[in-house]
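Reopening this one. Same input as before:
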Amino acid sequence: MNHQVITIIALVVGLAVLIIGTVKFKIHPFFSLLMASFAFGLLSGMGMENVLSAFTKGMGGTIAGIGVVIAIGTVTGSLLEKSGAVETMAQSILKITGEKHASLGLAITGYFVSIPVFCDAAIVLLAPIAKRISKDTKISITAIGVSLTMGLHATHMFVPPTPGPLSVAGILGADLGYVIGFGALVSIPVMLVAHFLADRMGEKYYSIPDDIEDMAEEVHDLPSPFMSFAPIVMPIILMLIKTFSDMTIAQGGETGFVKVINFFGTPMIALLIGLIIALVGYFKIHPEDKDVYTFDGEFGESLKTAGQIVLIVGAGGAFGGVLKASPLQDILINFFSGIDIGLLAPFIIGAIFRTAIGSGTVAMVTAASMLAPLLDVLGMATPMGRVLAMLACASGGAMLFHANDDFFWVASSTLGISTETAYKTFTVASVAQSLTGIICVYLLKFILL
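Same output, byte for byte:
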């Protein structure tokens, strides 16, 4: 049996260990991911030392990138919940959408927020609102959580300046303005199809958060809408300004003022500012609480939750790190290098890499790198053709969203959705999003080319 076949078998076994461990035996996701990583690494012939190195590197890189964001976001969410700010935000959103369309409102929120804010940070910020709305409306957290998560996922995959679509646009030489415009357009049906499925999934997997207190009864004086939304809106504005700055200012041309803006727009700093605003709002409602900063106060209790989430997300990143360090990526590239099936090629390549490795960015970039030399042959070398090629890469990269992606664990953990339900909802919705994306690409090709 050759090494390529052994690697593919190892991948199947590793994913089986992960799924059976978390779903059937209810093993904590951290340890299931640990077992899956070592099962794949050892069966694929990487060797114990290489598996350990890839695992620790993947976990360290993931936690370094998002660990602090999760910690700050979790503390902020707790402060917003305990002060009643989440209740105010939920009431404000429901006034606009109505209870019947609450999940659609969260899907649209995710669609817009994920353009300037990385989806991992966005879900940490928005999860408390989703849980509060679910509690108040009795609409399943599955429906609301999947709508929010997949709304974030839609623009994360299709609209720059998210790293994936931005990188693919550069590799293919696609006009950035066209990519943003058409990416935002395609993201609308991609977001809506997931929302439609989420409502059905909510009926099948009905659940209401049981860790949300009834603040409407316990808190008579709720914070104002301004003080409630500011801890979330302000970080988004700061990150959006930094995003705009990064896209418009040439390297080396930064002034001192721009450097200050970019500093405050860094996710960790922006979220820290949001936390400070949330703390001010908390003290307006609970001026007597002098223990909020302590180990036994809200800070300490929140960080206990955050620590577990960080470990799960880090283990997810570690599993992805082991997959990337293996020969799997080269095997897939060699297999697809000689296949010419038009726009379906980058779609299929992106889908297989996302499913196997877990990174939508890696999937999109790999598909684009293999597609770039073939643009002339495929008749996609025109400005619009390059945009459609980019959208095909993104459509493929949207499938399958499952347990080897750290965002899967951030979303399920912060929303309180079980691993078993997350497999049955997030993963299925991502397939629908991916297929909707490629259908839209072919419709645009028929109209524009």
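So the earlier flakiness isn't reproducible anymore. For the record, The radius of gyration is 22 Å.
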